Amino acid sequence: MTNSECRMVRAARRACLLACVLLLPFVIRHSSFAADNFGSSVTTYRNGDYATAAKVFDDLAMQQPATGTFQNLGLAEWQRGRRGHAVLAWERALWVDPRNAAAQENLRFARKVAQLEAPQLAWYEVASTWLPVNAWAWLAGASLWLAVAMIMLPPIIRWRRRGWHQAIAAMSLAVFLVCIPAMFGVNTRTRIGFALERNTPLRLTPTRDAQTVTMLGAGEPARIERARGNYLLVRASFSKGWIERTQFGRICPE
Q1: 3-114, superfamily in CATH?
Q2: What are the residue ranges spanned by the domains of the chain?
Q3: pLDDT in tens, the chain (254 residues)
Q4: If residue 243 lies in a helix (H) or strand (E), which one and from where to where?
Q5: 192-250: which CATH topology?
Q6: Partners of 235 in the beta sheet?
Q7: Nearest CA among 136, 78, 135, 137 for reference residue 102
Q8: Which candidate among 11, 157, 167, 221 keeps its CA 20 to 30 Å from the CA of 5?
Q9: What sign does the CA torsion over 120, 241, 62, 64 have?
C-alpha cells in the first residue's frame, strides 16, 4: 500500500470515529427520550388516564415497534373499551415476538369474553410464527451463504474436501428450504387484519351508500384481497365485502 493510500485510510478512519462521536449524544438522547416517555405512559396508565396512556404507547410503537409497547397499548385500549384496537395491539405484539406469553394470554381472554375467532392460518403461516418475522430472512441468508461456502471454498483455497464440509452444506441447505415456506407465510400474514369498531359494516361495493353485506364485531379477523381507493376488499370467516381503511387495522404495523 502506498503512502497516499495509507493517508486516505487513516483519514477515513478518523472521519468514521468523528461521526460516531458526534452521533453518540443523539442516540443517547433519543433512547433516554423514549425511555422517559415509556415510563411516564406507564405511570399515566396506573393513574387511570387510559386515553393519554394509549396515545403515548401508540406514538412510541409507531416510532419504534416493540412487543412490550404493543402489549401495554393493548391493555390501555382494553381499559378504554376499544376491544378491536386492543386485539390489534396484542396481535402486533406477537408479530414482533411470538413468544410474548402475556399477549397470548390477553388474546385468549379477550376472544373468550367477546366470542371472537382467531385468524385461520395455513400450515406455512403457522410455521412463520415459530420465530420473529425478521429472523426468517436472516436465517435464510446465513444458511444459504454457509452452504455455498462449504461447497465452493475448499477447492478455491485448496483444502481437502472433508465429510463434515458436505454435512454442514446439507444441513444449511435443509435450513434454507425450511425458511422458504416460513417467509412466504410471513408475507401472506401481512394481509391479515382486524375490524376496529363494533358493528363495522362490510359493504357490497366500495362506496359509502352501498348495501351492507354483514356487520363485523370489534376484533374480528379478515384477510385483505385487494384495495380500491379508500376501501379494502376483505374476506372474513363467513362473508366477503368492502370495508373502509380507517375501520380496519393490519397485523403488520405500517
Answers
A1: Tetratricopeptide repeat domain (1.25.40.10)
A2: 3-114, 124-189, 192-250
A3: 444 433 433 443 443 333 333 333 333 333 343 444 555 556 666 667 788 888 988 999 888 889 999 999 999 999 999 999 999 999 999 999 999 999 999 999 999 999 999 999 999 999 999 999 899 999 999 999 999 888 887 777 777 777 777 888 899 999 999 999 999 999 999 999 999 999 999 999 999 889 999 999 999 999 999 999 999 999 998 899 999 999 999 998 76
A4: strand 240-244
A5: SH3 type barrels. (2.30.30)
A6: 223, 240
A7: 78
A8: 157
A9: positive
CA distance 251 to 193: 5
C-alpha cell at 178: 425450511
pTM of the full structure = 0.79
Residue with grid cell 415510563, as numbered in its chain: 39
